Amino acid sequence: MKKLATLLLAAIMICTLVPVQAESEHPAETLTLLVPNFETIPGTFDNMEKEFESLYPWINLDIILTSWDEYENQLNTMVNGATPPDITYPTDPTYIIQKYLSSEMLLDISSAPEEMQAEFDTAALDFYRNGDALYGFPMVVTPQMLGGNKTYMEEAGLDWRKIQQEGWTFSEFRDAAAKGVKKTGDQTDVYGFVFAFAGVTAVDILELLTRTAGMENAIDENGKYAYTDPNFLKCLQFIRGMIDDGIMPKESSSVDAGMRWNMMLTGNTMLTGKALINFENLAKNNNKLLEEAPESAAVGSKHLEYCGLPVPYLEGCEYHSFGTVNGYIAFRQVEEPTPEHIQNVILAIHYLVSNKYFTIQTVNGLQTPVNSVARSYMPEALETLNVEFDPDNRAFNELTSAAIYKPNLSVTAEQSEKVSRLREEIILPQMQGMLAGEITPEAMYEKLCSAAVDMFGADGVR
Amino acid sequence: MTILRKRRALRREDEKWGYLFVAPAVILFLLFTAYPVLNAFRVSFQKYRPLGSTFIGLQNYKSTLSSSLFWKALWNTVVYTVGCVPVSLVISLGLSILLAPMRKWVQTIFKAAYYLPVLASGVTLSIVWLWIFSPFETGIFNQILGVLHIPSQNWLGSSKTAMLSLLIMVWLGNHGKNIIIYCSALAGIPNDLYEVADIEGASYFVKIRCIMLPLLKPTTLFLTVTGIITSFQVFQSAYLMTGGGPNHATTTIAYLIFTNAFTYFDFGAACAQALLMALITTVFAVFQFKFMGSDVEY
To answer: Which of B50, B134, B155 minimises the CB distance to A79?
Structure first.
C-alpha cells in the first residue's frame, strides 16, 4: 500500500513538474504588432492570430490594426516615445529602416537560424538589411509601374504587349503618350499621361524615374549622393516637357491619387501612374458595375481594359523597377532585449511572412511570396480563390518584379538623415514649383546640387 | 483671544476646502500644460533620441535662427495672420451688427448656421474645400471665373494663389466663434445710449461709430489677441490642403515644427522652434494689450 502511495505521489509530482518545466523553457510573452489594415480577405488576421498562438502558445500576439492614413504617424509617435511596437509592417522597408537607424530602436534579428534565412529570396531579404544587421523578413515584392488603357493604346497604334516585354525609353514614351492626346478645339478630352502629383506625392515620379535613369539609390555604392547626376536633370526635363507639350495636364500639381484613377476610369487619360498590377481588379470591378448596376459605378466611367506598363528608362541606362518589398520589421524596447525575446520575435515574424492565410491573400493580389514555405501554399491558394488575371499582365508583373532595384545596404544614419532633409526641404518644394511652372528644371537641379554640396561636401556628391 | 483663534481655525478650514476645490484644475494644469512646456524647454537643448538624448546647448536655437526655411515659415505665418485676423474681425463684426436688430429666434438660426463649420471635422471640410479649389473646370471657383471669362487657376498648386486660397477658406467659413462673442457684446450695450442717440438725431452709421465700436473695444481686443495666437498656430489647413507647398509657399511655423518632429524626428529643433513661436506670440500679445488696451475697461 505504501509503495502504491509512493508511486502515486511520484506520478503526481512528475505530472505537476512537466508543465512547470515547459513554462520555464518558454516564459510567456506578449508581442505587440502594429499593422495598417491591409486585409483584403476578411478574417485573415484572426485566422493568423489563432494559428500562431496554437503553434507558439507562450507568445501572445497583440495586434493593433490601424488605417493606412494613421499608420505612419502612429508608428512615429510610438518609436519616438520609446514605446515602439515589437513588430510592424512598414510601407517601404528601406525607407523606414534608414529613417529609424538614428533612433537606435530597430532590433537586429540576424541571429535567426541560417536555414530560416535561406527560405527567403536573397534580393528581397536584402531590403531588410543595413550593414551587417537584419531588421526583418520580407513577404512579397510589389513593383510600382504605370497603367494603360489597352483600347486607347491600340487606337493610337501602340503595341502594349511589346512595351510590356521590351520597355520604352524616355523619348519613346513621350512620343507614345503624345499619340494618346485627344482634343476638341483648345479643350483636351483625353490626356496622354496623368500622374498623381498633389502635395507630398509630387516626388513619387522621381522614385520611379531615378531607378531607370542610373540612380538606383540616393546614396550610391561609393557612398556619394547620387541626385546631383546630370541624369536627374534629364528626369526633370522629361516631366516638365510633357506638361509643356500638353501630354499631361497643366494642373498636374493638383492631381491626387483618387483623381488620376478617376480620370483613367472616365477615359480622360490613356496612361496613368503610379499604378500596381492589381489595378486590373479595380477596372474589372467597375466594368462589372457598369454592366450590372451602372448607378453604382464611378460617375462618367467607361469600360476599361487595363494593362500594367513599365516605367520608361533613360537612353543608355539599365531598367530597374521601383517597388516595395513588403514584410515585417522588429523594434526593441528601452530595456536591453533578451535572447528569448529576440527568439520570440524571430518566430513571430517568420510565421507572419510564411503562413497559409497570408499566402491566400497575396495570391488574390497577384503577388508572389518571397519565402519558400509561403510559396508551398500557393497551389492550395490558387485553387481556393480561382483568381483570374490577364495572362499578359501576369507575365509582365513577374518580369518587372524580377527587375526590382537593389537597395544600398551601407547607408549610415547620418547620410539617411541628410537624404531625408534634401528630399523634404529641397526636392519636394522645388518639384511642386516646377510642376506649377514657377521653377525651371534647370533652376531646380542647380538648387539641389548646391544644397547637396553644402550638406555632403563637394566630394560627397556624384 | 479665543475668538481670534476660532477665526484663524475657521480660515484654515476654509483654506483647506479652497485648496481641495482648485486641486483638480491645478493638477491638470501641471500635468498637461506646465510639465510639457518645461519638458519642451529641456528637450530644446538636446539632440533627442528615444534611448538617451544628449545635451547640445544652444545648437537647436542657433540652427533654427540661421535656417532660411524658419524665416520663410515665420514670414508666411505673419502674412497669414495679417490676412486672416483683421478681415475675419471686420466680417464677423459686420455680420453681428446686421444680426443685432433681428428677432432672437432669427438670430439663433443665423448664429447656429455660422457656427456649424466649427463643429464639422477639419478633414471633412478640407475635402469639400479641395473640391471647391479643384484646378480643373469642375472646381466651383474656376466655374465662377469661367462665367467671368477669366482663365482657370491652379488654386492650391501655384505659389501665387496657395496662401490666398487658405485665407479664402478662413474668410468664407470661420466666423462662428467671433459672431457669437460679438453678438453677446452687442446685446450688453445699454439701450439708453441708442435712445439718446435717437433723440440727438444720429444716423445708424453714427451709432455704429460712436456707440458700438467704442463699447466693443474690449471684445475686439480679446478677439484680436486670441485670433493672432490661433493664426500663429495655423497647421491643419496647411497640412491638409497644401502640405506646406508649393515651394514652401504655405509652410507655417506650426507646420515646420510638425515636419521637424515627425519627419526628421528632430524633437530638439521642433521644441526650440515651438518656444520661439511662443515667445513671438507673447511679445505680440503684450504689445496689443499695451497699445490697444490702454483705454479699455474690464
So the answer is: B50
Retrieve residue A431's grid coordinates.
518639384
Instruction: Find the CB nearest B242 among A76, A81, A199.
Output: A199
Reading chain B (298 residues) residue by residue, the pLDDT tens digits are 567 777 777 777 888 888 999 999 999 999 999 999 999 999 999 998 888 889 999 999 999 999 999 999 999 999 999 999 999 999 999 999 999 888 889 999 999 999 988 888 888 888 889 889 988 878 899 999 989 989 888 899 888 999 999 999 999 888 899 999 999 999 999 999 999 999 999 998 999 999 999 999 999 999 999 999 999 999 988 988 888 888 899 999 999 999 998 888 889 999 999 999 999 999 988 888 887 766 655 4
Across the interface, which of B51, B157, B263 has its CB nearest the CB of A420? B263
- Write down the H helix ranges in B188-216: 191-199, 204-207, 213-215
Contact criterion met (CB below 8 Å) for A301 and A266:
yes
Q: Are residues B33 and B178 in the same domain?
A: no
Q: Which CATH class is domain A28-142+323-402?
A: alpha beta
Residues of chain A with CATH 3.40.190.10: 28-142+323-402, 145-320+417-460
| Count of CB pairs separated by less than 8 Å, A with B | 93
Kindly list the residues from chain B whose CB atom is less than 8 angstroms away from the CB atom of residue A102. 49, 265
Nearest residue of A to residue B158 by CA position? A436
Q: All 3 cell numbers of residue B105?
A: 429666434
Residue range(s) defining the domain that contains residue B283: 62-292
CB contact under 8 A, A82 and B158: no
Residues comprising chain B, all counted: 298
Cα–Cα distance for residue pair B92/A448, rounded to 1 Å? 45
* Domain membership flag for residue B195: yes
Note whether B29 and B66 are same-domain residues: no
Q: Say if A249 is an interface residue toward chain B (CB within 8 Å).
A: yes
User: Cα(A75)–Cα(A281) distance, rounded to whole angstroms?
Assistant: 30
Contact A436/B at CB under 8 A: yes
CATH of domain A145-320+417-460: 3.40.190.10
| Residues of chain A contacting B267 with CB distance shorter than 8 Å | 80
Task: Tell me if A367 sits within 8 A of A60, measured CB to CB.
Answer: no
